[in-house]
Structures are given as structure tokens and as C-alpha cells.
Design a protein that fits this description.
Elements lengths: L3 E5 L22 E2 L9 E5 L1 H5 L8 E4 L8 E2 H13 L5 E2 L5 E8 L2 E7 L5 E2 L3 H14 L1 E2 L6 E2 L1 E5 L3 E7 L36
Helix pairs in contact: 2-3
Protein name: Ecp2 effector protein domain-containing protein
Keywords: Signal
């Protein structure tokens, strides 16, 4: 098996990932930190299979959104954010907390945040760890709807950091709706034919 050796950079391929200066923190009393795009590159050495077998980080507690503290977001758009985060090959870094947060994915009012509750700086192994936390929220905090399901909540991770999935209207793109049409008459605006377009957020 050939060895995978690549020097991969964290690049802002789409503007849904990096926070806008001055945005509101996800929780009252917390602060929002901008995730910078020019962190040091990360070098990986190993087979593709070895990278896929890296253990996931699972939350020890999940609190689902109650629509009072914050509202749930459409699962479709959160899942798209998970896919994006899983493709980033860098180590996310966060300044000291507690309550220091950065919005790492945001489109169509569906945001993923991660927060550092440590008093010192925090560096994760990969963005996949954040995606794993958000995925756990989607698994346990789902509200089923006629057209689209919603999900939201907060996942508390080992190492004193957490992930938040929620509706976010602060520089978070436009929410688009579609109508249900009979089979065989699928329109481009429906979930099956709809392609997410980023770039609504200016940095």
C-alpha cells in the first residue's frame, strides 16, 4: 500500500467556514473568536486506511435545544457543513476561555460553533472532531418536519470544549424554501435538485 504523504493547508474554499468579525456569540456571556485561515500547515504520513481509522471523539453529555435558548436549524444544511468540515486537513485552534467560541460552518441560517472552556489555548487533532460532536447532536436532537427536519443543541466533549448546532441569522447566508412537487416533476429548488451555494458571507 502506497504511503500517503501530503502537505495540506487550511484554505478558505468557501466563506461559510470562517467567522465574521463582530458576530454575536452563540451563548450569552460567551465571546466569538475569528478562526484564522493562515495557521501552520499540517503534514500527514500514513496510508489512507490508517487515516480513516482514527478514533472519533464522542461527547459525554448532550443538551438539546429547547427553542428558548436558541432555535434548531435545518438538518439538511447542517449535514452539508459536516461534510465540509470533514474535508478540512488542519488542526483547529482556539484562544483561552472559558466561553471562547468560533463559528466554523454557517449557511442558510444553520451554524456549527465550537467553544473552548479551558483557561488556556486549545488545539484539536482535526476538524473531524468538531464534526463528530455536531453529528451526535443531529442523532439525538432531531425534530421531524413535513418538508425538512430540524436539529440543534450543545455537545460537551472530553477536554473541556463543546460544539453547538443552532439556527444563526447573524451573517449566516440566506434561507431558501421550496415546494413539494409530484414525483417526476422535480424542480431545481427542491432538496434533491438543490445545490448549496456559499459565498453570501463576506470576510
Amino acid at each position: 500500500m502506497a504511503t500517503l504523504k501530503a502537505l495540506l493547508f487550511l484554505v478558505a474554499a468557501s466563506s461559510n467556514v470562517f467567522a465574521v468579525e463582530g458576530i454575536e456569540a452563540p451563548i450569552p456571556g460567551y465571546v466569538a473568536e475569528t478562526l484564522h485561515t493562515r495557521d501552520s500547515p499540517v503534514s500527514f504520513d500514513g496510508t489512507i486506511e490508517e487515516k480513516r481509522e482514527l478514533p472519533s471523539v464522542l461527547p459525554y453529555k448532550i443538551e438539546c435545544a429547547d427553542e428558548k435558548r436558541w432555535k434548531k436549524a435545518y438538518r439538511w444544511y447542517i449535514q452539508d457543513g459536516l461534510t465540509y468540515l470533514s474535508k478540512l486537513r488542519a488542526k483547529p485552534k482556539m484562544g483561552p476561555g472559558p466561553g471562547n467560541c468560533s463559528r466554523v460552518s454557517c449557511s442558510y441560517e444553520a451554524a456549527i460553533w465550537w467553544c473552548n472552556d479551558n483557561s488556556e489555548k486549545l488545539e484539536l487533532n482535526s476538524f473531524q472532531e468538531i464534526a463528530d460532536g455536531a453529528s451526535s447532536i443531529l442523532d439525538q436532537c432531531i425534530s421531524y418536519g413535513l418538508v425538512m427536519d430540524r436539529a440543534g443543541g450543545q455537545a460537551f466533549m472530553p477536554g473541556n470544549w463543546n460544539v453547538i448546532v443552532r439556527q444563526d441569522k447573524d451573517h449566516c447566508g440566506d434561507l431558501k424554501f421550496w415546494t413539494i412537487v409530484p414525483s417526476g416533476e422535480q424542480e431545481s429548488g427542491s432538496p434533491q435538485g438543490h445545490k448549496l451555494q456559499y459565498g453570501t458571507e463576506k470576510i
